[in-house]
Amino acid sequence: MKSDVKSQQLRTEANRLYVHQKFYDALLKYNESLCAAESESENMGLAFANRSAVYFEMKLYDKCLSNIELAKKNCYPEKNLEILKKRENKCLQLLKQNDDANQCEDFLSSFELSYPGNDELPFIANCLEMEVDSKYGRYIVTKRHLKVGDIVAIDEPTFKVIKADSRYSTCYDSNVFQRCGGCMKENLLGLIPCTSCCRTMYCSIDCMKSSHKRHHKYECEIVDELLTSGIMHIVVRMLLEGLSLFDGDIHEMEKFLTQHTEPMTIFNLNSKSWKSVEGRRKMFLAALSLPSCVSDEKVDLENYENIFMKTKKLKGLWNSNESFIRKILVKLVHVGTHYVHGIGGWSLNQKFNEEEPKNPSFYQQLNGNGLYLFCSLLNHSCAPNIKRLNVDDKVVVIVSRPIEKGEQLFDSYRPNFNNQAKTIRQEALMKDYGFVCDCEACYNDWPLNHNLNVFSEELLEFAWGLHEELPFMTVADAKKMLYKCYDAIAQHHEHFPSAELIVLQECVSNCLILITKPSLQFP
């Protein structure tokens, strides 16, 4: 519930943090204050104005100016306008003297497909295609030899949600008040609040309007419960976004799905039509088609029913067609459980990583969950030949071991063979996915890290030396070392698995993460 009293308390806390130059924490508190402020209250203008002061201290003058404008438009007291005008004039002067270089970075521009894109799906290399058989179901193969380091797909989530439940206590506020509830961009924390709830912010008015139309008009009253509900959040989000494609008419949605029963995958779609209602409906069908067989025996929908009973809109939907909603929820629970991937990313807090004991420079927090229609077709191997890299909310699929023409691309659903014993891996895969893994690592019972063979002490020394140096490297140096690692892995791949190649693979991961780490972080 919006509360000016709460908003003022939060702004006071933020002011205290600002005085101690804890700018990241101050911005989060100002954002929380904005979310709590009542509509057309002075608290809105004051929070935007105070937030502009943080951006001024960070030399983010464009951000400072935009927040000054937001303060003026949101009931900032006239008696204090002179203060804002002085700050505004200083910003304008400083902008003339300095380039405002610390804008939101476009990390995706560093990654592009290594081969021409598919005619209808330009974010997937045209050498990849889907096949189907009784053992693997649907899977992805390549029509040409793929080299280590090749980028073969840049997949975008069809559905996504911010993740607030985490073993890291700092995740809740840093995600909810740092990232847009629609597109998940952090926008250097320069967000605007939902006009109704206290736990959703947006990067722009357009994103707010789009999110409200697609899902937030249903979620707004129950956002607190959804943010801490785990996989339930994205399951409900998928259902509600699907429903919005039928203007909220559950009967029209049922009619459409009854008429379209043929299984569909991303390879049946055309990206040019994705912004159309018909294109989005097909994407929803592809999501529902992911589970090859669905049983409702182990799906408990009690918590979902409880969620639907909390608002008038959702309760009306449930009561109007409960049997159909239950049927769709069972499918979506399977999708959410088996096909949704975590979305990793960086906090803008430079001290966020200090508590993480292993390689703090390479620790990303979990920002959200997303359903990726291409990546969902990748089968598992305990010795995967591709790596998934989160860049913003997208997944860049990179070849990590040579893949010959006609071979399958393999992801990993669990720790790799070198990090976990075969029996533990197989028990977990059977429990969570229902199959006995017979990948090359399981079939040959490849050893754990401490038992791996060494074929070159010189290469092992190089790999470990690089591993130790990486946390202190510049982005430019990391890019150079990335390609050296690619070359070494490709040149010596006949020795896989070996200690040298496993360490080099980890160096590749760390290089890639370092390349996508924001250069600007808030104290």
TrEMBL record:
Keywords: Metal-binding, Zinc, Zinc-finger. GO terms for molecular function: N-methyltransferase activity; protein methyltransferase activity; S-adenosylmethionine-dependent methyltransferase activity; zinc ion binding. Residues 180-220 form the MYND-type domain. Pfam families: SET. Residues 126-414 form the SET domain. This is CLUMA_CG019001, isoform A. It comes from the Eukaryota. Signal peptide: none annotated.
